[in-house]
Write a structure and sequence with these properties.
This protein is mainly alpha-helical and about 290 residues long. About 75% of the residues lie in helices and about 0% in strands. The protein is built from nine helices and no strands. Helix 6 runs antiparallel to helix 7 and helix 7 runs antiparallel to helix 8 (about 200-230). The protein is globular. The mean pLDDT is about 90.
């Protein structure tokens, strides 16, 4: 019965499935935020439902809602991706990753997971239009989502799913660390001054910032860099190779820019005991303590 349901989903085709799944994700997001993540965010920030929140307070709650939703989603996605790679002999192998078209791979989860990732980043594009327009890196965020959808779609149509899943897996791992670190920073900071609430919060935020920098360096700079570099030596007359070189190189470039900024924030946090994220929190105002 389960297999028949899986095949029925595959029969929808990539774009119908992606459209339906995107709508479902947006609907689930709305329900979870209203009934679960918003109450959790209020409690984590020390607010109650009757409080009259300032602009910074509302922004902090909205960001925590997003961080909780994304953490849950990435835990599910990275678990699915990890299990798929684990049960296939080509999983977690840089050598096997570069083999395509891998037409011999017939795991039914392969197209479903690719299309689900496409839906997730389509959802992310819509979500950015709803909640991220105030960010100074809004355009970079939108480009990131568009690139992700195009790369995954390209990998599907060219049977390049092995490299697709390797990239998605290592990106998802760093995303989980990123959102946990952001949540820790939010709940241990004063929403008005954006500064740590006490000396213990300074230490906790420093540890979180270091963990974030290490995960970003390991996953998004080194591992993704190795994947991009491995494609450099592939022949140029293969359309998929050329396509992935351009797309992945651009994608990696975005990670390098973001990573450089994260390393700067981490240095400030460790040396000064405080940092302000002018990208993610550019819609918030700092008030003197």
């Amino acid at each position: 019965i389960f297999f028949r349901h899986v095949m029925a989903l595959i029969d929808l085709g990539p774009w119908v499935y992606t459209a339906v799944c995107t709508a479902c994700m947006l609907a689930v997001r709305a329900v979870l935020i209203k009934f679960l993540f918003k109450p959790m965010a209020y409690k984590m920030m020390g607010f109650t439902e009757g409080d009259e929140l300032t602009k910074n307070g509302k922004s902090s709650v909205m960001k925590l809602e997003k961080y909780l939703w994304h953490t849950l989603a990435y835990v599910i996605l990275v678990s699915w991706c990890g299990l798929l790679m684990w049960r296939n002999s080509w999983g977690f192998s840089f050598t096997a990753m570069s083999h395509y078209p891998a037409l011999e791979d017939d795991d039914p989860d392969i197209p479903l997971l690719q299309w689900t990732y496409m839906a997730w980043y389509c959802h992310g594009f819509v979500e950015s239009l709803l909640v991220d327009t105030g960010r100074s890196d809004f355009i970079m965020m939108v480009v990131h989502h568009v690139l992700s959808v195009l790369m995954i779609a390209g990998s599907y149509h060219s049977a390049g799913h092995r490299v697709c899943f390797m990239v998605c897996f290592e990106q998802d791992l760093s995303d989980i660390v990123t959102y946990v670190a952001k949540m820790v920073q939010k709940v241990t900071s004063d929403p008005e001054t954006q500064k740590p609430i006490n000396s213990r919060a300074v230490s906790i935020q420093s540890v979180g910032a270091i963990m974030l920098s290490l995960s970003w360096l390991t996953c998004r700079h080194i591992t993704l860099g190795i994947i991009v570099w491995s494609l450099v030596f592939k022949i140029w007359n293969d359309p998929f190779t050329v396509y992935m070189k351009v797309m992945l190189s651009t994608f990696w470039g975005l990670q390098v820019v973001w990573g450089g900024y994260i390393f700067k924030l981490t240095y400030q946090q460790v040396t000064e005991g405080y940092h302000f994220d002018n990208y993610n929190d550019s819609d918030m105002h700092q008030k003197e303590s």
